[in-house]
Structures are given as C-alpha cells and as structure tokens.
Design brief:
five-stranded antiparallel sheet, AL/BT2_dom, Jelly Rolls, globular, hydrolase activity, eight-stranded antiparallel sheet, 13 strands, single chain, alpha+beta, 15% helix, signal
Length: 234
C-alpha cells in the first residue's frame, strides 16, 4: 500500500473508531439515571424560547421554585423520546402547574402545551380547575383533559411534597403519584387519536404529534416547587 492510500486508510479507521465510540457511549447512557436538577444550579434548563432562565424561577432549599408569574415554562435543553422521569413537586394553596413532555420548541407555537401532553400538578381542593373537565381529568396526576387519575386520594394536599413518575415507552405512557400508578395511556396510534379527538386539543395542529421533545415545568402563574429531578432514557 502506498503512502497516500495508507494515510487515507488510517484516517478512515480513526473516524470509524470515533463513530463506534460515540455510538457505544450513547448506548451506555440509556438505562442510567441522569440528574436534571441537582438543587444548586439550573444548568441544562432555560425559560421557554429564551437563552436563559428568567429570574422568576429561583433555587430555594434545594428546590427550583416559580416564585411569581412571568418566568415562562422551564424547559430542558435536551430532547427525550422514551424515558422514565422522576421528581417531587409541591404546589401552593390554590395553585396550578404541570409536567409537559415531548415539547416542540418552535416559534410557531405559543407555549409548551401547544405540542406537549401534560401531567397535571394542582391543588385539587382549592383550584377551580379540579372541578372542570370530565370525570376528574384536570386533577393531579391526570393526563390533562384526556384521562383522570384512577385514585383521587393518591395526591397529598397543597404545601406537601408529592412524588411523581412519568414513563413513556414504546407508544405507551404511565403517570405515577406517590407510588401509585394512576393513569395508563397510549402515546400514538388510533387510541391516542381518539383521546385527542375527545379533548380540548382536537383542533390543535401538532399537539402530541412528536415522538420526542423537551420536558417543561409549567408557569401557570402560581407558586410551585420541584426537586430531585432525574431522568432515565429507555
């Protein structure tokens, strides 16, 4: 082999090895818990369609807190497809927020809930939204405006910490609240289309259409706290 061919072969080999290493590293990350919020910084997050976190989102006692309206939804820098998300949330009295997944961050959409389905975070006792919707599908843990939680007693009252778990895998989803699976739902296909058609989102172009996207914590104008946020890609 002449010198020119050897150099070309060597370069190709290095590139192939680098690509293999990158692929192996990506695979290695799957199935491992990754901390999204360590209680100290908001690296890896930004306010919706901003290049920074707006000051209404603060860090207090190891939690990220929406102290007042105007922070916009807090959005991950990274997109996720299939995943398992765990976090704890505490809502203020009469408060409203939500955990939104598969968010498409595009200027043509007003907000994360334009595209991303929401797991409800709410004071079920004092917020009027708890009595809206159908059969409780606006209450805490619900797939908002589509499916209610199976156990309305799973939630803890305003001012107390609740542990949420959201699993999205293989076209199916689960919402867990304080150790109880409260909702099972499809994320695609005919059954999903039926859920959307029977909801307020039936005419929303792009709602629930993406198989991957960012995760958002909602600014609904009320004080809410989140902590111990971690995710595992599946």
């Amino acid at each position: 082999m002449n010198c020119t061919k050897w150099k070309a072969f060597g370069k190709a080999s290095v590139l192939a090895l680098a690509a293999l290493a990158f692929s192996n590293d990506a695979e290695a990350q799957k199935g491992k818990w990754v901390t999204l919020f360590d209680g100290k910084s908001l690296n890896g997050w930004h306010s919706w369609q901003q290049d920074k976190v707006l000051p209404q989102w603060k860090i207090e006692d190891g939690a990220v807190v929406l102290a007042e309206k105007g922070g916009k939804d807090l959005v991950t820098d990274k997109e996720y497809g299939d995943f398992e998300l765990e976090l704890e949330w505490k809502i203020s009295e009469g408060g409203n927020s939500g955990i939104i997944y598969h968010v498409v961050e595009d200027k043509k959409y007003c907000c994360p809930y334009s595209t991303g389905p929401e797991i409800q975070v709410l004071d079920d006792v004092k917020h009027p939204d708890a009595k809206a919707g159908k059969e409780g599908n606006h209450k805490s843990g619900s797939l908002y405006d589509m499916l209610p939680p199976s156990d309305f007693s799973a939630v803890k009252p305003a001012g107390e910490w609740n542990k949420a778990r959201v699993v999205i895998k293989g076209g199916k989803g689960e919402s867990w609240l304080n150790g109880k699976k409260v909702v099972e739902f499809p994320t695609q296909g005919a059954e999903w289309d039926k859920l959307v058609a029977n909801s307020k989102f039936k005419t929303w172009q792009g709602f629930g259409a993406s198989s991957k996207g960012k995760i958002a914590l909602q600014d609904h104008g009320d004080k809410v706290s989140y902590r111990n946020i971690r995710i595992k890609e599946l």
